[in-house]
Amino acid sequence: MNNAVSLSHSAQYLKKAVPMMVKYRMPVTPINYAIWYCYFQGNKPSLNIELDQVISEHQTCTQSKAKEIFDKHLSDEDLALFQEMSDKFHNTVENIQQDISITLGHSKSFSTSLIDSQNEINSLIDTNSFNDILGCVERLTDESIAMQDSAREFQTKLSVAYNEIKDLKEALNLSKEAADTDPLTGFYNRGKFDSDINDFCREYSEQTTESSLAALIMFDIDHFKRFNDDFGHQKGDEVIKLVAKKVKENLTDKAKVYRYGGEEFCITAYFDTINDLVAFAECIRQEIAKLAIRKKQDVNNKRAISASFGLAMLRPFTKSSVLVERADRALYIAKTHGRNRVEIAPDI
Ligand SMILES: Nc1nc2c(ncn2[C@@H]2O[C@H](COP(=O)(O)OP(=O)(O)OP(=O)(O)O)[C@@H](O)[C@H]2O)c(=O)[nH]1
Prior knowledge:
By secondary structure, the protein is α+β, with helices and mostly antiparallel strands. The chain has helices spanning 3-23, 30-41, 45-58, 63-73, 76-124, 131-180, 190-205, 224-231, 233-249, 274-289, 320-336, and strands at 213-221, 255-259, 264-271, 292-294, 302-304, 307-313, 342-344.
């Protein structure tokens, strides 16, 4: 299959996939997108049979079922290929649009020059013998204008297609963002941490950042299990959300927060000095320590919230696993030294 044909088919599959996701109330995630894309591509009949079955039974396909179908019939390579095809299509449409703009410009100047010629001839003729020539030139001008109109119409159509693809790409980016985000806190999730932490270490080693100090801050809500046990799981969730809100209010723009586990968080951030790093962690710790939660209507049953912090400064060429281990060790020390405190990893 040549590139143009595959590209035009790919556009058809892309356009068909989205209405299906809307119709069957499936979010526009890369995985949902990929399975519908393959459905219309028709290369994997067993995928079509399974998806048809699921849809006819449930009138939707849950995220876990979609993942199951994806894992069974497709691979991460398929997902990457699909993403590549969507990117390629987007770029191609962009290039064609540029070409058309240039063509339209050329056509416009062609038309202008013909009109100029007509005016010139007009000024020259003073006898009827030139009327035929003039008629011919007029026709040429009309044709040129018609050509310009049709090019403009083509460009409009192309703009519509271009915007559609742009929207699709935006939807894909949004779904990627959602895939990286923890829904309870709005922070990045563990998967994102695992993929970001290596870059964080590498960028610092390669000195591509201006800041002199990079650090990993790991913190964990103290005795969190007791909130769940004594107040219920929902109140436990509320504690996590309250803590997340406080952290957000005290963040710097050079810091990124991740929900590392249940009630454990990581912050990667850049600072000018160690004092700045410690002050930053202390500030968040103190703000969290001002929080409390109580059972509904039970004013006497109030429970203070606190968190313990472990800090590890990044040394150039440190492996991410070593950095995480050091922050974790500092956090462990903070816990064993009484909680609600900040500890720095000892080997810095
Ligand atoms: N409500 C709620 N609980 C969670 C969530 N994720 C994990 N948990 C619970 O969090 C608790 C974590 O408890 P531990 O890690 O033992 O912490 P802890 O011993 O209470 O406290 P420290 O020793 O101070 O760390 C477990 O009971 C988990 O079930 C969540 O999203 N919401």
